[in-house]
Here is the input.
Amino acid sequence: MVNKGMERAAVIDLDILPELTNSFSRKTDKYKIINGLEVKISSQRYAVFKKSLECVKCHCVGSYFAIERPVFPKNTRYHLNLYGIDKNGKELLFTKDHILPRSKGGKNILSNYQTMCHICNTEKGNNLEL
Here is the structure.
């Protein structure tokens, strides 16, 4: 199942994660050619996913990346989204969540991020409690 509003070009294994986090820590290239596509690799999400692929609330685990881009605007570059499969066999998108929400003074720093699936993150909203 493709994330609504996204165009999926490919699915790739998690073994690319160390390479993504190394690229981000060096702050060198913002894009990398993966499967013949220019993919944005400058995202803090990869460092969060390197710490943990498991949703802190429901404990589902991310198991692969999808190379995707928004359907509109069409000229937007590709990026990687982390997905897993839930207990019902459905695809589940993973996100980085602010432990202390930005609306409550939380910072955009690695120590304030945790891995959550999209469903749990939406339920949490800007609350402090899971």
